[in-house]
Task: structure prediction
Amino acid sequence: SYVLTQPPSVSVAPGQTARITCGGNNIGSKSVHWYQQKPGQAPVLVVYDDSDRPSGIPERFSGSNSGNTATLTISRVEAGDEADYYCQVWDSSSDRLGVVFGGGTKLTVL
Amino acid sequence: EVQLVESGGGLVQPGRSLRLSCAASGFTFDDYAMHWVRQAPGKGLEWVSGISWNSGSIGYADSVKGRFTISRDNAKNSLYLQMNSLRAEDTALYYCAKKDNAFDIWGQGTMVTVSS
Result:
């Protein structure tokens, strides 16, 4: 089955830019979605279809996807962005509604 | 307000069964596929199962195939997960999620603990 690889942790100072990667074989051919999960809360969609933002998500959150790597970029990082982030794709190798999540990346704001 | 509310979790012995429910409101339920996603304590998200709007297409993770059954009742705006032959490794917070382009709406989850 398809595998998504994320770094376990990323650290960034407030005001700087955080980049969280999601690696997969030819992931550029898939649509990638990103979720933010804060402790004790349900996940929240922050980027869908590689680079689109749901309403209510700040423009500081952006995404890109090419080749074997998708990237979630958080500009002007704030303390409130500290959370776990997960990438997700639809597993087209599965015959029915397969879903794959990355292992998650913990973003620490220093 | 768009909302998903899960229920039915609890403490259950290994080998026993449990049925989870997810009540949807604030959107046209039968327009969307629905999914279950779980999260073991301290671990990441794991997809469990999904069902299309008309129940015509269904999928399961390999870890639950043959033991779990997903279903929906569009008349009741409800999603279900029948979990049989439960194992300790099924212990997790179970979320239901609405699928649009992605999982745009999540419930708050219901906790399932499998232990003797």
